Amino acid sequence: AAKGAGRGKHCFYEPAMHSEASDRQLLENDLRQALERGELSVCYQPIVRAVGEDVAGFEALVRWTHASRGAISPAKFIPLAEECGMIGKIGEWVLKTALAEAARWPDRVRIAVNLSPIQFNNPGIVGVIDRLLGESGVRPGRLELEITEGVFLAEGDATDETFARLKNLGVRLALDDFGTGYSSLGYLKKAPFDKIKIDQSFVRGAASPSSRNSAIIRAIVTLAESLNMDTVAEGVETHDDLQLIRDLGCSQIQGYIFGKPGDAEIAGQLARAKSVEAEGFQCIREPR
Ligand code: C2E
Ligand code: MG
Ligand code: MG
Ligand code: MG
């Protein structure tokens, strides 16, 4: 809940926590140099249309391969980057890298990039996106920015204006991880989202008979349809869940069943292949 509130906060550590705190400090120092050392990479996970199974686009997901510790999850280092002031630089690099890749794909294939609330609330963000779009030559309508409700919780209320300026650029906006956190319906009213990404916690195992998740997914899909938004079910891993998600009318699907995040080469092949069969696309590999 304290996401983004970390800077300048005083914490009291138990003696046993000292090592954890200094480990964090070490990791933070390494993260500061990760970009110039070439330790960061971007991988791409297909987002597939529920009907027809063609590839609607890819989500860019950043990876950090630490020199001695190996792969470190973005769930761990993105919050660190947010707290130590690195997220702007890293986020801009991801955006630039992902747009350069998307420029090589067919025009119908979109690229989705995650935007941290801190990036979003930086007044320069619209200019940065405009410039990077121009440099890449990617049509703005192909770029989808994934935003969490964190943007509404962070300080600074430039959000309404930022949303309007982004829509003016012609990019698409997706509300990520929907259903977690506070998920006030007011957020849907507040911002011109084109898409809702239903969080994995509702999707995984939704097909089991005792699950209440399918009722929740159904409600989200109905809501999204009446607001003219697409829906993506995240984290679809099994055929049972895939079947259910289709029956519930989600428009797009993202999950291991259609492909794990893969390197740029694999993504390029898949982008041109157009359609993808569940579990039919086997050459899945993460970038090194
Ligand atoms: P997210 O934006 O919700 O991304 C989806 C996450 O779910 C990814 O994890 C993806 O690999 C994972 N996933 C997709 N399908 C499945 C599935 O079927 N099963 C399972 N178990 N997992 C699945 P990843 O890459 O570890 O990223 C975690 C989070 O880190 C992302 O969640 C996003 O919040 C953040 N993140 C990743 N890259 C970036 C970035 O470039 N910028 C920012 N600001 N955040 C990023
Ligand atoms: Mg995302
Ligand atoms: Mg998500
Ligand atoms: Mg997430």
TrEMBL record:
<protein>
    <submittedName>
        <fullName>EAL domain-containing protein</fullName>
    </submittedName>
</protein>
<feature type="domain" description="EAL">
    <location>
        <begin position="24"/>
        <end position="275"/>
    </location>
</feature>
